[in-house]
Design a protein that fits this description.
Layout lengths: L4 E4 L2 E4 L3 H12 L4 E4 L16 E2 L11 H11 L6 H20 L14 E2 L9 E2 L5 H24 L6 E4 L2 E9 L2 E9 L5 E5 L2 E4 L20 H9 L3 E2 L4 E8 L13 H4 L3 E3 L23 H9 L13 H13 L9 E4 L6 H7 L1 H11 L8 E10 L2 E2 L14 E3 L16 H22 L9 H12 L4 H4 L11 H15 L6 H18 L12 H25 L22 E7 L2 H4 L10 E7 L5 H4 L4 H7 L2 H5 L1
Parallel strand pairs: 1-10, 2-3, 2-11, 3-7, 11-18
Antiparallel strand pairs: 4-6, 5-6, 8-9, 9-10, 12-17, 12-19, 13-16, 14-15, 15-16, 19-20
Bound molecules: flavin-adenine dinucleotide.
């Protein structure tokens, strides 16, 4: 066995975004020696990019708001496929998590009378998003980091070492969760800069690795969203659910090509921005689906009045849930009513004075000026859908965030599935990170405290993980075996994967195209076995990408297989050949598991699918929660059996 450094911790948190940091704080406060490991620099997690705000029913902007209304909105947004217990916990606990952030030093924007200001967002009945301009994620991460530093200062006072109870390993990537006798024993990692391998042994691992957007060509996500946590869970034997539900945010930049996909925050619409097509029509009024008809304004005048008088008017349809707006934009462009660069127009310039735009949307103003030379205080933006968020993820116990079937494995944040059902409402991710990040840290600590003995990492698994990581440098990867074909460039493979997912499993899906996507994925899997890199292990991005490809191919197959299986349209899954929502699918989760345990050892035939798909009925929604809805509304969603029950 090659020598690999090993360190022992109680809890390892993989990911230093909002979910990971909140989990780490909780585990450390419960007395656990906690390691946090992240691919990028500490502080540069995806969470930092969050713009619009954190959804929590504090009732500051409208006192009618409460957790029940938030729960209702979340279930409606997810088209009732949400893991209802998660949606309940989330709605109940989000306000406490926001207050807590404030006690840790977060500085939110204020109302005129000094309370935390809350803004409107799509699908939320009342203004609910606590925010800091359009840079809320930055403040959230800054506050959590500050809390971590203060805990480290405490540790230094008590033990003489800042890292004694809570240590951050930045720019390090986890490639395997290690197990012994079915239980988690640690993680295998490499340092991105030096290429050195090391193992963090721990009986509990919290996955908080975020999403999968880099499998798609047009995305708002940054380089580190390669579905690592999803793949790590699968490879460790934990199932994923809801993977067919990928959110295409309606408003990403469409021009210039180099910035295509970068997010244009929903706050623009929340603060009054309107969508128009090339004929100048506010087309969203033509796209209000039946299930939402009673809740949205039918005329522009009513929609406009709502901003001033929300109690006596209905909201404008620009604030429908994201899946509805994205589909509408797609349809307008397809019908030839798009903007010059293939999007539609989003306008705030005619809706608010320039100084208000600059104050409320400073990042958007800067982003468009710098990247597209567009002054949003004077002219409309051009926007179109961009792959933004994955609703699917690791199947977890709703209360404890424990992954199904793998003792010691936990998951929180975007990598976990269930909470958002088929479509996430804006603002519900930051609150999700805090609510379930805390729970994951708490229950991971409880799990460790209750253990009688700790599983040790098996040296054979460490060797196997090392061999797997080094494969792109090997003779096979390097192309010296002529019978196995020439080496493949990981960048080419990545581009082809992104193009396939974009074209064939994107915003509008068809059976034949998804079947073709699965064929292309099979071919890419074979070629990815020959992904070869040159040079050495010191900072070698090509090598890192070759490793990440395994993860992107796994999660892409999950998305494609589940999307092909679900023969209806719901939330973030739109089938051209099955355009309606079908109540019979309401209580069906599609579960993805690793098909062949030999794939675990890298021995499976990569041309065969790696994912086994099965259907699982979701637990019935608790009666008191159902009673929060009108019966007329439930009839639109629930199956006949559920209604008769
Ligand atoms: P992240 O914050 O992405 O953190 C993931 C961490 O995992 C990172 O530290 C990464 O380095 C690490 N990691 C990944 N793989 C590995 C590995 N193999 N080994 C080690 N570390 C690894 N949501 C809202 O609620 N409100 C908003 O206003 C909002 N605005 C958004 C704006 C943009 C532009 C984007 C892209 C998203 C926005 N979202 C918003 C969504 C929200 O930001 C994300 O869903 C959320 O931040 C995810 O947090 P997380 O903690 O799960 O993961």
């Amino acid at each position: 066995m090659a020598h690999v450094d090993r360190q022992t911790w109680d809890v390892v948190v993989v990911g230093a975004g909002g979910a990971g940091l909140r989990a780490a704080i909780e585990a450390r406060e419960a007395g656990m020696r906690t390691a946090v490991i992240c691919k990028s620099l500490f502080g540069k997690a995806h969470t930092v990019m969050a713009e619009g705000g954190i959804a929590a029913s504090m009732g500051n902007a409208n006192e009618n708001d409460n957790w029940q209304v938030h729960f209702r909105d979340t279930m409606r947004g997810g088209k009732f496929l949400n893991q209802w217990r998660m949606a309940e916990l989330h709605a109940r606990e989000a306000p406490d998590r926001v207050w807590e952030l404030e006690t840790w030093g977060a500085l939110f924007d204020r109302t005129a009378d000094g309370r935390i200001s809350q803004r409107n967002f799509g699908g939320h009945e009342y203004p609910r998003l606590a925010h800091v301009g359009d840079r809320t994620g930055l403040e959230l991460i800054r506050t959590l980091q500050q809390k971590i530093v203060s805990l480290q200062q405490e540790d230094e006072r008590d033990s003489g070492s800042y890292d004694a109870g809570l240590k951050v390993f930045q720019e390090c990537t986890v490639t395997r969760v290690l197990k012994k006798d079915g239980r988690v024993s640690g993680v295998f990692c490499y340092q991105r800069e030096s290429g050195r391998f090391f193992v963090l042994e721990a009986p509990a691992v919290v996955l908080a690795t975020g999403g999968i957007g880099k499998s798609f060509k047009v995305t708002s996500n940054s380089w580190e969203y390669t579905g690592d946590g999803h793949a790590l869970a699968l490879l460790a034997g934990a199932p994923l659910i809801n993977m067919e539900f990928v959110q295409f945010h309606p408003t990403g930049m469409v021009w210039p090509p180099s910035v295509k996909g970068i997010l244009v925050t929903e706050s623009v619409r929340g603060d009054g921005g309107v969508l128009r097509n090339s004929d100048g029509n506010r087309f969203m009024f033509d796209y209000i689906p039946d299930v939402f008809k009673e809740k949205y304004a039918q005329t522009e005048a009513e929609g406009d009045r709502w901003y001033e008088d929300p109690d006596n008017n209905r909201r404008p349809p620009e604030l429908l849930p994201r899946d509805e707006v994205a589909r509408a934009i797609n349809a307008e462009v397809k019908a030839g009513r798009g903007s010059p660069h293939g999007g539609v127009f989003l306008d705030v310039s005619t809706r608010m004075p320039a100084e208000v735009i600059k104050r409320r949307l400073p990042s958007m103003h800067h982003q468009f000026k710098e990247l597209a030379d567009v002054d949003i205080t004077a002219e409309p933006m051009e926007v179109g859908p961009t792959c933004h968020y994955v609703m699917g993820g690791v199947e977890v116990d709703p209360d404890s965030a424990a992954a199904t079937g793998v003792p010691g494995l936990f998951a929180a944040g975007e990598v976990a599935g269930g909470m958002h059902g088929s479509n996430r409402l804006g603002g519900n991710s930051l609150s999700d990170l805090l609510v379930f990040g805390r729970r994951a840290g708490l229950y991971a600590a409880e799990y460790v405290a209750a253990l009688r003995d700790r599983p040790a990492a098996d040296p054979r698994d460490i060797d196997a993980a090392e061999a797997e990581a080094l494969r792109p440098f090997s003779a096979e990867g390097g192309g010296q075996h002529a019978d196995r074909g020439p080496a493949e460039n990981p960048y080419t493979l990545h581009q082809e994967l992104q193009q396939s997912m974009n074209d064939l499993v994107g915003i509008i899906r068809r059976e034949g195209e998804m079947a073709e996507a699965l064929e292309r994925l099979a071919e890419l899997r074979v070629r990815a076995r020959r992904a070869g890199v040159e040079g050495h292990r010191q900072y070698n991005p090509g090598w890192h990408l070759a490793i990440d490809l395994r993860n992107m191919l796994l999660v892409s197959e999950c998305v494609a297989r589940a999307a092909l299986e679900r023969e209806e349209s719901r939330g973030g899954h739109t089938r051209d050949d099955h355009p309606d929502m079908d109540r019979r699918w309401r209580n069906v989760n599609l579960v993805c598991e690793l098909a062949d345990t030999r794939a675990d050892s890298g021995e499976a035939d990569p041309a065969l699918g790696q994912i086994r798909l099965s259907r699982r009925e979701t637990p019935p929604i608790r009666r008191d929660l159902l009673e929060l809805f009108d019966k007329d509304e439930l009839v639109k969603y629930l199956t006949d059996e559920e209604l008769s029950r």
